[in-house]
Amino acid sequence: MKRKSKSADEFAGQSKQSAEEFDRLCTLVQLQAQEIEALKAEISILSRKGGHILPPNPAILPQNAR
After folding, report:
1. Cα Rg of the chain, angstroms
2. CB 42: neighbour CB atoms within 10 A?
3. Element at 20 (helix H, strand E)
4. Which residues form the domain of 11?
5. Is the pLDDT at 63 greater than 80, yes or no?
6. Number of domains observed in the structure of the chain
7. Is 38 in contact with 13 (CB distance < 8 Å)?
8. From the centroid of its chain, how far is CA 54?
9. Residue at 26 is within a domain
10. CA distances from residue 12 to 5, 7, 25, 65 in whole angstroms, order as listed
């Protein structure tokens, strides 16, 4: 019985870790989607005749804090 309990605890820990990883990846995907939209807008502006170059918006660029 003790062995099953240990396996269940290990599985629960892995499940929690998987959920945290899933949340982290969802956040990353959302940041990348925002960056894609910003790049699309910049391409649209630059595609026009006489388009002005805008500096990147630091509010939407991902921060690598590792």
Report:
1. 21
2. 15
3. helix 2-47
4. 1-48
5. no
6. 1
7. no
8. 24
9. yes
10. 10, 9, 20, 28
Q: Which residues neighbour 52 within 8 Å (Cβ) at sequence distance 6 or greater?
A: 45
Residue 34 exposure: Cα atoms within 13 Å on the Cβ side: 13
Is residue 27 in some structural domain? yes
Q: Is 50 left (phi over 0), alpha (psi -120 to 50) or beta?
A: left
Q: What is the pLDDT of residues 32-61, one digit of tens each?
A: 999 999 999 988 888 876 656 666 676 665
Give this prediction's pTM: 0.53
Reported as a single tens digit per residue, the pLDDT across 14-24 is 788 899 999 99
Answer yes or no: is 55 within a domain.
no
